[in-house]
Write a structure and sequence with these properties.
Distance between the termini of chain B: 36 Å
Radius of gyration of chain B: 13 Å
Largest sheet of chain A: 7 strands, mixed
Radius of gyration of chain A: 13 Å
Order of helices and strands of chain B: EEEEEEEEEEE
Order of helices and strands of chain A: EEEEEEEEEEE
Structural class of chain A: mainly beta
Strand content of chain A: over 45%
Number of helices of chain B: 0
Shape of chain A: globular
Oligomer: heterodimer
Largest sheet of chain B: 6 strands, mixed
Chain lengths: 116, 106
């Protein structure tokens, strides 16, 4: 059973470009979470999704950021018009069906975004 | 003040030592998580607990709900235990501590 997959592992973008980060949850997991880790800072929750639904996006910046988890395919975190402050490691985690609050989450290896 | 506080921030130990990392939180929670972030950046979930104590190999995690405090213990520490250990609490979302950077010297 493959773990949580994220790609790309490293992504370089110039200011103003779009960044698309992909996350494939573990087989059988229908809950996906995105977290951001800024340089020298702790992890911060961004968004929680189930298939075709955004459950909680309270941690998402109001502009330029969006996330989806379609019925088929990976979850996508999309950042439009990237700025240097978006440079960070973005981690995805998944959990099996069940209450978000009490599920163990399995983390992907992360995508390191660098904005030039 | 952060909702999740960890101590110490940095910890250096000699191989074989018993290690304790502490976590205090100020919000109501459903569960507390201990995570390990390797030097390469990958994150592994070590424990999720809502009461009592859990043990896995040389790792032990305890939680006191009344005192809003948890500890992670590592017995017979080894250089491969060197990593950042992160405490997180969950209710409607996950709130993370800043992490404790552990270095175990041979």
């Amino acid at each position: 059973n493959a773990g949580v997959m994220q790609n790309p592992r490293h992504l370089v973008r110039r200011r103003g470009q779009e960044a698309r980060l992909r996350c494939s949850p573990m087989k059988g997991h229908s809950h996906v979470y995105w977290y951001r880790q800024l340089p020298e800072e702790g992890l911060k929750f961004m968004v929680y999704l189930q298939k075709e639904n955004i459950i909680d996006e309270s941690g998402m910046p109001k502009e330029r950021f969006s996330a989806e988890f379609p019925k088929e395919g990976p979850s996508i975190l999309r950042i439009q018009q990237v700025v240097r402050g978006d440079s960070a490691a973005y981690f995805c985690a998944s959990s099996p069906q069940g209450a978000y609050r009490t599920d163990t989450q399995y983390f992907g290896p992360g995508t390191r975004l660098t904005v030039l | 003040k952060n909702e999740v506080e960890q101590s110490p921030q940095n910890l250096t130990a000699q191989e074989g030592e018993f290690i304790t990392i502490n976590c205090s939180y100020s919000v109501g929670i459903s569960a507390l998580h201990w995570l390990q972030q390797h030097p390469g950046g990958g994150i592994v979930s070590l424990f999720m607990l809502s009461s009592g104590k859990k043990k896995h190999g040389r790792l032990i995690a305890t939680i006191n709900i009344q005192e809003k405090h948890s500890s992670l213990h590592i017995t017979a520490s080894h250089p491969r235990d060197s990593a950042v250990y992160i405490c997180a609490v969950s209710l409607n979302d996950m709130r993370f501590g800043a992490g404790t950077r552990l270095t175990v010297k041979p």
